[in-house]
Amino acid sequence: MIGRHIKYFMVGIILVTGIGVFGDFPVPEFDQKKAWDFLLAQTDIGPRAPGTDGHYIARDFFVSTLSKYTDRVIEQEFTHTYPYENNSYDFANIIAEFGKKEGKKILLGAHWDTRPWADMESDFRRWNQPIIGANDGASGVAVLLELARIFHQQPPPVPVTIVLFDAEDMGKSNMLDQYAVGSRYFASQLKNPERYRYAVVVDMIGDADLSIPMEANSLRIAPELTRRIWAIADSLGYKEFDQRAGDPIHDDHLMLYRHAGIPSVDIIDFHYPNKYQNFWHTLEDTPDKCSPRSLRVVGDVLLHLVYGKQPELRE
What CATH number is attached to the domain comprising 196? Predict the structure, then answer.
């Protein structure tokens, strides 16, 4: 136990003094109020499930918002037919580029669609109702929209691609291949995936009772990057980042790794709000269960990652 505490103490010193992690670039301040406003703007639209008016309204909102911060915004359109649905759906990944154009890129991603069914409700009569998705959808996007605003004001020292993935959350529990459809499409269409240094996906990070372990698949496919992120959080005093290993989660980061070979990490608090109670995929996933501070904790860690010295994780 003593040895482990010494190790974390030394990691904290290294991070704070900027040796090996934080470079010579000043780290901007993350504005939790603006991020919170971005979360509320999404939930005010209502459910953003595929095929609904909310889905189209949200898409326009994301494109118009990102276009304020960069002139490099792309709507990557695609269609997908689910085996348990009678029709195809139109989707769009929303891609925004920041910083210089040359050099290896960092990809920051979150899914923007919401689940069409509240199938984790205890009352089965409510299963067909769509969820608001304050945490599962809006929280990760809110953090990335605030980062986009910051990148516009203080360009990042490395190229950064923000991707808002569509079609993540319409899968059935026994059909994992019908989840994360948008990120799979994005990864499969990349012509030069080696240009991406790494990717970080943020999902369900707005929980007011935030506790983020090191997701097991992230530790497997990008161990160095995972430990770096959690070490940054530790150096900043954010105990919300739990230094233990968590459960494996099937999420967008796996698609980026499997289909494009990009080392990818998932920052996710899957137990929402905790192991004894569940708001995930229920009608209880509303803003009152979330916290502006949680958005700031994650956003601040990402800013220190982006503006710090970058690891070489791939050939």
Answer: 3.40.630.10
User: pLDDT digit string (tens) for 64-93?
Assistant: 999 999 999 999 999 999 999 988 999 999
Is 315 within a domain?
Answer: no
> With 60 as the cut, is the pLDDT of residue 167 above it?
yes
In a domain, 131, yes or no: yes
Flag whether 89 is in a domain: yes
And the tokens for 176?
A: 């994992």
SS3 304: helix
Number of structural domains in the chain: 1
What residue spans of the chain are helical by DSSP H? 2-17, 32-45, 53-67, 140-153, 181-189, 216-221, 223-235, 252-260, 292-306
What is the token pair recorded at 72? Answer: 């490099």
Structural domain for 192, as ranges: 2-306
Q: What is the mean pLDDT of residues 256-269?
A: 98
- In the chain, the percentage of residues whose pLDDT exceeds 70 is 91
pTM: 0.92
Any idea of the CA torsion for 180, 181, 182, 187, to the nearest 10 degrees? 90
Q: What pLDDT, on a 0 to 100 scale, did the predictor assign at position 159?
A: 98
Q: Do residues 223 and 289 lie in contact, with contact meaning Cβ atoms separated by under 8 Å?
A: no
